[in-house]
Amino acid sequence: MRIDVVTIFPAFFDVLEVSLLGKARGAGILDVRVHDLRDATHDRHRTVDDTPYGGGAGMVMKPEPWGEVIDAIAGPATEPQDAATDDAPLFIFPSPAGERFTQATARELATEQHLVFGCGRYEGIDERVFAYASTRGRVRLISLGDYVLNGGEVAAMAMIEAIGRLVPGVVGNPESLVEESHEDGLLEYPSYTKPASWRGYDVPDVLLSGHHGKVAQWRHDQQVQRTRERRPDLLAD
Ligand code: JF5
């Protein structure tokens, strides 16, 4: 999978070098390229924002640098219908005004060939950038949750990690992907390791019993109980 990131803070993405995703990049499974939006400016102050038409607080990201970077990433313009196809890039703009990102979104996006994350700052990006990007690929505005960040970088990083680990070959053991939280709509069961007794806290007897059926039943009960207590919204749907 190829992932391009467009940002005015490319250093945010240095951490992608480490950990599992870093290894996947080394192995050629993930091809991540980070682009500094300011490299597509041509004034001496490398300006990426301007005041909003119609007035109001804050600044808006100018369209011209975005247009240049989109051209550089997506290549020469194609026929309008080609932008909607699966092999055209999928542009993702992290935004609190977008559709909600879930594990199901991560699964869906992990099947894509080419993702482009556009990280906005200030009060947002000139709306015409989304229209232009949609002539070169599909466009989705995606929200991590109902809170506001200073820019799209942290949201993009979280999405890249959630998506990247589902790309075949990135996580060593595919079984560890199946049994995890949110894949079956329930929270994870509690986990324990040695020692069986630690500072007066004991591992539940059932886990030491060697009775696989009872262990599975106990774990499922724990999942349901925790989900009811912590995330009743998950049980509702
Ligand atoms: C952002 C303009 C993007 O705040 C977010 C966000 C929250 N959930 N998901 C994303 O994005 C930052 C700020 C201003 C565009």
Quick structural gist:
With 237 residues, the chain is an alpha/beta fold.
Describe the protein in words:
The chain has 237 residues and is of the alpha/beta class. Helix content is 32%, strand content 18%. It is built from nine helices and nine strands. The strands form three sheets. The protein has a five-stranded parallel sheet with strand order 2-1-6-5-7. Helix 3 crosses helix 5. The longest helix is centred in the C-terminal third of the chain and has 19 residues. Bound molecules: (phenylmethyl) 1~{H}-pyrazole-4-carboxylate (JF5).
What's the number of extended β-strand segments?
Answer: 9
Give the H and E element order.
EHEEEHEHEHEHHEEHHH
Largest sheet: 5 strands, parallel
Helix content: 25-40%
Continuous helix count: 9
Shape field: elongated
Beta-strand percentage range: 15-25%
Distinct small molecules bound, one entry per kind: (phenylmethyl) 1~{H}-pyrazole-4-carboxylate
Rg over CA atoms? 22 Å
Give the spatial strand order of the biggest sheet.
2-1-6-5-7
Structural category? alpha/beta
Roughly how many Å apart are the termini?
32 Å
Spans with pLDDT under 50 lasting ≥5 residues? none
| Mean model confidence by pLDDT | 94
How is the topology of this model organized?
Blueprint lengths: L1 E6 L11 H8 L4 E6 L12 E2 L9 E2 L1 H12 L15 E11 L2 H7 L4 E5 L9 H6 L4 E6 L9 H12 L10 H4 L18 E2 L2 E2 L2 H4 L3 H19 L1 H5 L1
Parallel strand pairs: 1-2, 1-6, 5-6, 5-7
Antiparallel strand pairs: 3-4, 8-9
Helix pairs in contact: 3-5
The site of (phenylmethyl) 1~{H}-pyrazole-4-carboxylate (JF5) has 14 residues, from strand 5.
